[in-house]
Design a protein that fits this description.
The complex is a heterodimer. By secondary structure, chain A is an all-alpha fold. Chain A has a domain at 21-53. Helix content of chain A is 83%, strand content 0%. Chain A contains two helices and no strands. Chain B is 31% helix and 17% strand. Chain B is an alpha/beta fold. Classes of the chains: A mainly alpha, B alpha/beta.
């Protein structure tokens, strides 16, 4: 298990990450939406090409 | 720009006030003494170290081991409590006092776990002083420590500085444009246009509580 040394600087890092959790979640959601769009595009494109080939 | 000639803080525990109007080179001189800036010409030495020839790493070591710095606008970390702000220094210093002891010296025993936003301006400045003294510095440099404070709060901060100077025997340099503060010093150096215009040794120091401006 990873142990975090409880220095003031580490506390600052953890506390500030926690304070910006909303922004972090929003960024993660935007990235996930982008990845989902890419996957949908690729699978749709592949299906359409299969259909055209038949 | 020419900034300050022939200044020395010779005896350990001396309290020096650098007095001068805005633009006279006070902050530049303090930053040079504290190893934050390097002059374009001239020499600055601390004991047997020549700071003007020091590398970045040597200057960092000099600041870490010997210098405490108090800024006009406190520069505390907003996401850390008073105790943790002081612990930032005690975590890396060689022979520090505890954060609790440093905060007790400036009369903040009751405010250990308060964040800067929960403290008054004077209390924040006293946390900044505690942070500067926690490493028991040989040199304590204060850049306009009362500049952002009212008279009553300013005197509390000056009392804290005088107490630290008396008890830790740190050579203390306070820069100010407030002439009233000069009375609490051992020595007063007046600056004007980047030069030392006069130097005066006070026969007796005044208690900060008796100051008014």
């Amino acid at each position: 298990m990873v142990s975090v040394v409880r220095t003031a600087l580490n506390r600052k890092l953890l506390r500030e990450l926690w304070q910006m959790r909303g922004q972090a979640l929003a960024i993660a959601a935007v990235v996930m939406a982008g990845v989902a769009m890419l996957v949908m595009y690729l699978s749709n494109s592949s299906s359409l090409q299969d259909t055209l080939a038949r | 720009m020419r900034c300050a000639e022939s200044i020395s803080v010779s005896s350990r525990g001396e309290f020096v006030v650098l007095l001068g109007p805005s633009g006279s080179g006070k902050s530049t001189l303090l930053n040079i003494l504290g190893g934050l800036d390097v002059p374009t010409s001239g020499d600055v030495s601390y004991r047997d170290h020549l700071l003007t020839r020091a590398t970045e790493a040597e200057l960092t070591r000099y600041r870490r081991e010997h210098v405490g710095f108090v800024f006009q606008f406190y520069n505390l970390i907003p996401s850390l409590t008073a105790r943790e702000n002081v612990a930032l220094v005690t975590d890396i210093a060689e022979r520090p006092m505890t954060p609790e002891a440093a905060l007790a010296m400036v009369g903040l025993t009751e405010r250990l776990d308060h964040f800067p936003a929960q403290l008054s301006g004077g209390e924040q400045q006293r946390v900044a002083i505690a942070r500067a003294i926690a490493k028991c510095p040989d040199v304590l440099l204060s850049d306009e420590p009362t500049g952002a404070l009212d008279v009553t709060t300013g005197i509390v901060v000056l009392e804290a500085l005088a107490r630290v100077n008396r008890e830790l025997r740190s050579s203390t340099v306070v820069i100010t444009h407030n002439a009233a503060i000069a009375a609490m010093a051992d020595r007063v150096v007046r600056l004007g246009d980047g030069r030392v215009t006069s130097e005066q040794v006070n026969a007796s120091k005044v208690d900060p509580r008796t100051l008014a401006w």
